[in-house]
């Protein structure tokens, strides 16, 4: 559980850094963003692979999305039951903020170095926006890139969708919807949903089983993966509580930036997804373009539930 | 035959011969793991032993409230050590000159005083990309002196400038066409001609930009390095390295390009680059993945393929979320001898023998106690700090900075290391610096400082060592400390 908390914290911090890098003087620093994206990817892998049923991101989902950590992980393609749509809550935010003109203008995949790629993409005025959008999305893209390359996109879908599916099993999300910052709050408060998973435990593992099929050694893999990382993580976790920054302030920042982050990533995603081939991708894309564009094959039954998930978690999940 | 062989052998053979000074059978560092017994600093005298560092001078405002523009961003001695240049975030360059030792003022002991100050770079705005270009001076490199004037290269993120610093101590008087106050005289009024004569005047030091090397870098320039041929230099940004001729500003050659076709596949960037001090065809560049590539420009025009590849295998037991960040190399420097190079990553300094690519010959821990704090350091961005390192004149000692205004010195011969502090409290003239110690756990002894008490805003990123003498310059935020060895 602690690995997950730490990983989540690191993910949120990293996203904040990427977001803030947009407004830094001197333009976006390629080196720093690259390093942040590497941390983000590692943390995300741990986050998604940690088999903690307490949080809505369940273990099995992450396994195909974490090839280096999970030994012998076959990319099982979109595992059974991963037809769930991406979070509609996010999609509600995303379409509003999509800077459409910028997407088609960018013929090449999004890049991190806003300096160079921003030039072909942007017109006057939109330059900065496109830059930051591209930079943000490129950061994400990079996070996903290697995985995608390795698994032909299937893993990405898996990673994106698994957690959503798993959410249904754990009673956590409905409880989490009460507060917008629930995701941030939930792990920090030592997972108020902890008792719930205990109850859900018996049904959860068997239900989760089919999803685990594609994730050989989920139990051993994630444990082996984050374990070495966990000890150094645990100490800083406690230390940081004492720091003046404070976990609460950190959370404040997260939720404060969430809407903006979502808007950035949302608009990024529309572009990303449009360019990417693959069925799972289209699902997400269709989902993104709004409930109004009901994509064939969309499983919409969970939409009402998922819409209530706070946008933060959906952002992570979508990645 | 030998010549042919070398040519055919290509970069490898020629390089080896060059680096080893043409000899065969030079002593190699023993193949020991970790910190090795060392092969000595290339046979240099033991200049690093028993150094007793004393405070000499401090430059800069004492004010607690530090303006960001005053933060020193680079420090560099010139080839003779008589001049010391600093660049700051405000785009200014300040040059200090060492006073001649004077019998009438024996205590000055060669003090450094301000020689010239000028605004090197201004903030710019790239309208096409809507990006501001910072005026912060990233690096200064001196050119070897060839005449009375001094030349240096200074660079910000995008533009490199060649500055000429010259002295003027004479003034011409007696012009025909203008008065002493500069007003033009009416030519019809001139009845006699005179030859202007030179009269002495107060020394004036002028800095003028002689060359501006612009528009060659898409990404942020992190390094410049003057070649030993004194005609060319390289500039490196995150993805590319360009070779320039000092006289030619409208063209540069791209010699390294690691930009992937698809930027999504980007996995590493260039973090530092330097020319070999003696071999004008050899340079190295370090990456964010903790690797160093040595390239020979004779082997091909585009040096994307390295001649040597230096990498130490990662220790899997120390893997964490931040392993990649802390393995990113922030500085790479050749030793004066050209036989070794030193790299600085977040927690350590490594000395590499150019003949051994598999691992460094020495690894020195700078502040290992920070390893358990990496998450907090990530949060407050300290983990991205780029520390520099430098060699002592004899290559027997190396120095690098840390936090809390501490800096570390490692003597390669005696294997001793010391932590010193640059602070105003220790700034009595010729006061010896007391070694500091960080308490890493357990009971804190007197005079020790605990890890949690370290001030991470006081970081020493930039240090410089006089090329010949034991004089060091340490930049602590907006202050420049100069320390000398007692025996100096």
Describe the structure.
The complex is a heterodimer of chains A (319) and B (488). With 319 residues, chain A is mainly alpha-helical. In chain A, 64% of the residues lie in helices and 0% in strands. In chain A, helix 3 (88-97) crosses helix 14 (247-275) and helix 7 (154-169) runs antiparallel to helix 17 (311-318). Chain A is globular, with a radius of gyration of 18 Å. The model of chain A is unreliable at 56-319 (pLDDT under 50). Chain B has 488 residues and is mainly beta. In chain B, the strands form nine sheets. In chain B, strands 1-32-31-30 form a four-stranded antiparallel β-sheet, with no helix packed on it. In chain B, strands 2-3-4-5 form a four-stranded antiparallel β-sheet, with no helix packed on it. In chain B, strands 8-9-10-11 form a four-stranded antiparallel β-sheet, with no helix packed on it. In chain B, a hairpin with a 4-residue loop joins strand 17 (282-287) and strand 18. Chain B is globular and about 90 Å long. Chain B starts with a helix and ends with a strand. In chain B, 46% of the residues are buried. Mean pLDDT of chain B is 87; it is low at 1-48. Chains A and B meet through helix 1, helix 2, helix 5, helix 6 and helix 13 of A and strand 7 and helix 4 of B. Chain A: Residues 141-150, 189-199 have a biased composition (Basic and acidic residues). Chain A: Residues 257-270 have a biased composition (Polar residues). Chain A: Residues 72-83 have a biased composition (Low complexity).
């Amino acid at each position: 559980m602690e690995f997950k908390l730490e990983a989540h914290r690191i993910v949120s911090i990293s996203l904040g850094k990427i977001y803030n890098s947009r407004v830094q003087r001197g333009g976006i620093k390629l080196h720093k963003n690259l390093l942040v994206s590497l941390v983000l990817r590692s943390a995300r892998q741990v986050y998604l692979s940690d088999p903690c049923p307490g949080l809505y991101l369940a273990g099995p989902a992450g396994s195909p999305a974490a090839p280096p950590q999970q030994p012998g992980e076959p990319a099982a393609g979109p595992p059974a039951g991963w037809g769930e749509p991406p979070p509609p809550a996010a999609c509600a935010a995303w379409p509003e903020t999509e800077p459409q003109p910028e997407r088609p203008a960018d013929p090449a995949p999004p890049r991190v170095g806003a300096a160079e790629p921003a030039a072909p993409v942007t017109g006057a005025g939109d330059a900065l926006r496109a830059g930051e959008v591209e930079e943000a999305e490129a950061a994400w893209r990079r996070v996903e890139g290697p995985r995608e390359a390795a698994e032909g996109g299937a893993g990405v879908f898996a990673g994106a969708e698994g957690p959503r599916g798993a959410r249904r099993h754990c009673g956590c999300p409905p409880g989490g919807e009460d507060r917008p910052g629930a995701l941030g709050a939930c792990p920090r408060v030592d997972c108020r949903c902890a008792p719930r998973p205990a109850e859900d435990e018996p049904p959860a593992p068997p239900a989760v089983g089919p999803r685990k099929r594609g994730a050989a050694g989920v139990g051993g893999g994630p444990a082996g993966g984050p374990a070495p990382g966990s000890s150094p993580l645990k100490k800083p976790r406690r230390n940081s509580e004492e720091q003046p920054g404070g976990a609460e302030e950190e959370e404040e920042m997260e939720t404060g930036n969430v809407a903006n982050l979502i808007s950035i990533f949302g608009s990024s995603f529309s572009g990303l997804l449009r360019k990417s081939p693959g069925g799972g991708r289209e699902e997400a894309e269709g989902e993104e373009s709004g409930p109004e564009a009901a994509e064939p094959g969309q499983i919409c039954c969970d939409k009402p539930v998922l819409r209530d998930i706070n946008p933060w978690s959906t952002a992570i999940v979508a990645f | 035959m030998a010549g042919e062989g070398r040519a055919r052998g290509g970069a490898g053979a020629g390089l080896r011969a060059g680096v080893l000074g043409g000899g065969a059978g030079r002593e190699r560092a023993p193949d020991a793991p970790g910190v090795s017994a060392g092969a000595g600093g290339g046979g240099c005298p033991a200049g690093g032993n028993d150094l007793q560092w004393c405070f000499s001078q401090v430059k800069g405002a004492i004010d607690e409230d530090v303006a960001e523009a005053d933060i020193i961003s680079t420090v560099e001695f010139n080839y003779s050590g008589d001049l010391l240049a600093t660049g700051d975030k405000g785009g200014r360059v300040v040059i200090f000159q060492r006073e001649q030792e004077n019998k009438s003022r024996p205590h000055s002991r060669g003090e450094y005083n301000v020689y010239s100050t000028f605004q090197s770079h201004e903030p710019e705005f790239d309208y096409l990309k809507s990006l501001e270009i910072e005026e912060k001076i990233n690096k200064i490199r001196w050119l070897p002196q060839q005449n009375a004037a001094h030349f240096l290269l200074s660079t910000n993120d995008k533009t490199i400038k060649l500055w000429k610093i010259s002295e003027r101590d004479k003034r011409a008087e007696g012009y025909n066409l203008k008065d002493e106050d500069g007003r033009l005289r009416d030519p019809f009024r001139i009845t006699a001609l005179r030859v202007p004569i030179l009269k002495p005047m107060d020394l004036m030091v002028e800095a003028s930009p002689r060359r501006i090397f612009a528009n060659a870098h898409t990404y942020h320039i992190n390094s410049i390095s003057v070649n030993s041929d004194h005609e060319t230099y390289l500039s490196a940004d995150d993805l590319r390295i360009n070779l320039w001729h000092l006289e030619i500003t409208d063209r540069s050659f791209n010699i390294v390009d690691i930009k992937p076709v698809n930027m999504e596949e980007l996995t590493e960037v260039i973090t530092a680059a330097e020319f070999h001090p003696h071999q004008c065809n050899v340079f190295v560049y370090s990456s964010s993945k903790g690797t160093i590539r040595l390239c020979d420009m004779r082997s091909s025009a585009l040096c994307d393929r390295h001649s040597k590849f230096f990498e130490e295998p990662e220790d899997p037991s120390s893997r964490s979320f931040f392993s990649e960040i802390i393995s990113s190399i922030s500085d790479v420097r050749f030793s004066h001898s050209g036989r070794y190079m030193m790299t600085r990553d977040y927690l350590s300094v490594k000395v590499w023998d150019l003949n051994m690519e598999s691992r460094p010959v020495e690894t020195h821990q700078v502040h290992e106690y920070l390893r358990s704090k990496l998450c907090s350091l990530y949060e407050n961005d300290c983990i991205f700090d780029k520390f520099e390192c430098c060699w002592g004149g004899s290559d027997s000692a190396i120095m690098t900075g840390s936090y809390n205004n501490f800096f570390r010195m490692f003597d390669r011969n005696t294997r001793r290391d010391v932590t010193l502090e640059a602070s105003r409290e220790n700034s009595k003239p010729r006061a010896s610096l007391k070694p500091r110690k960080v308490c890493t756990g357990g009971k804190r002894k007197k005079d020790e400082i605990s890890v949690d008490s370290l001030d991470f805003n006081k970081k020493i990123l930039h240090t410089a060592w006089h090329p010949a003498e034991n004089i060091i310059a340490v930049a602590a935020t907006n202050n420049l400390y100069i320390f000398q060895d007692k025996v100096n």
